[in-house]
Specification:
This protein is α/β, with parallel strands linked by helices. The protein has 23 helices and 17 strands. Helices cover 46% and strands 14% of the residues.
Length: 581
Amino acid sequence: MSTLRGTAVSPGIAVGRALVVERDAVPVFRLNLAPEKIPAEIGRLEAALEVSREQLRAIKERLSREVGAPHAYIFDAHLLMLDDPLLRARAVEIVQQQLVNAEWALRTVSEELHGLFDEFSDEYLRERSSDLDDVIGRVQLNLRGAPGAPSLERLPGPFVLVASDLSPSEAAELDWDRVLAVATDMGSSTYHTAIIARSLRIPAVVGLKDATRQTPAGSLVVVDGTRGEVVVEPSASILDGFRRDQETYRREDERLCSTRELPSRTQDGVDVRLVANVEFPEEAATAQLYGAEGIGLFRSEYLLGRDPRWPSEDQQLDVYRRLIEQMHPHAVTVRTWDVGREALGTVGPSGPNPAMGERALRLLRRSPDPFRVQLRALLRAGEHGPIRIMFPFVAGVGDLRLALSLLDEAREELRRENVAFREDVPVGVNLEVPSAAVVVDLLVTEVDFFSVGTNDLIQYLLAVDRTDPRVSALYEPLHPAVLRTLARIAAVAREHDRPLSLCGEMAGQPVEAVLLVGLGYRELSMAPSAIPRVKAAVRAVREDEARRLAERCLSLGTREETVRFVREELPEAAGPAGPVQ
């Protein structure tokens, strides 16, 4: 038995067999196979090798015709690598001896051969390791394309997913119905995968550093997403303890869910609207289960997936319409494309720091058409019920006016085409860039509502990359600078009578939610599963008491002082949610 400790990001306890995913050119699973399945697995490997050989021969012949034989010699070396016993025979041997799948055998062979290349003294020979990556990567892709091949979209059974990392596109396509829990080497509480896990009520622990190395494929694993622990091959007594905790958590979750019909109202009668952050349209049902009063953030990037084509206007309209109908009579807020340059296909990556590069509205100047199509679809969706348009990554008035001018163009196009749409769809800004927070008094007259995106606002305000495990502990929602910034935004919104919500992960923490109510926030948007606990915290306090606590926190100098103060003043609110962040 071994115990790994990381960051608890999605509460609950799950027990199951581990499916280990290593990050390569494509995600690679390590699966334990029954002896009787080995011949078929070797057949899969041989077929992928043969397809790869034919592809390399075709490439060589085409290059010989088009640019001359001397330039095609490199593929002779690739073909020789493909048939080398150190690759081919060794991969078959690993499948047979270790009873593992072909993908994992190839990955093992790759590591062994890279070790050999590293020992060469000749620099030219060492550099040939890139050719090896090319050859093995090709075989892996051909294995992945074979019928019945395991993939993130087609998990071979219910598993605890153990991975180094999952990209947003991988997380979007993951077969979540077969995921019992998630454990990753990297990540933080605001990591994309963590956000999805919370939304789907799947226990998750991230930042484990080397879980993929310490968790044998197929081993029994317990993931405790409340304490931040992963236990590999637990003893019988330890497993029994987790089973009891699992049942206790289940009963508590049922108790809290039974409050879904109760109002989210403080003891002195102040209503606080609790709405849901949604990644996929299917989550609308989960949001309703937990009593969400609408969708405060629909991340429309789900519609992109890994498809190189932008979704059509009608495809988008269908998704937005379904969301509106599912959440009726409550409103749905859709965030426009928050993507980087890579989404445009031909312009290359967003730079060394994509989160602060050319993304979201900054792409309007380069490629307005995808945004125009989305705005047309959103305006048309307004015919079916209450919907709001929210622009992300606005840095100031100039960015916002550019987006609003494109919205005016979309309206004018629809009028000329006699297409039915709603003229007065409310338009707002997701305040997540510090510069926008500074000039919020200038933005307030340009929009119908504000929503504060604390996930990005905190990391930019504190200069902390929330996805970097080396500094993610410095990501502090209760930092004085964060609380003071949030207080000023609330004051400006209140002065100008603008609706204000907060849609970051901070909203889903009961203690933080109480402080936000004290700061003047009356709409909080969070993962659906967080709603019952936040509702319980809101119902347990008076608004005037929450205001007193918030005002006191604004006078404190450090995050540590704030945490200590709120733990003393709000012990009951801190309890169900675990430690104050």
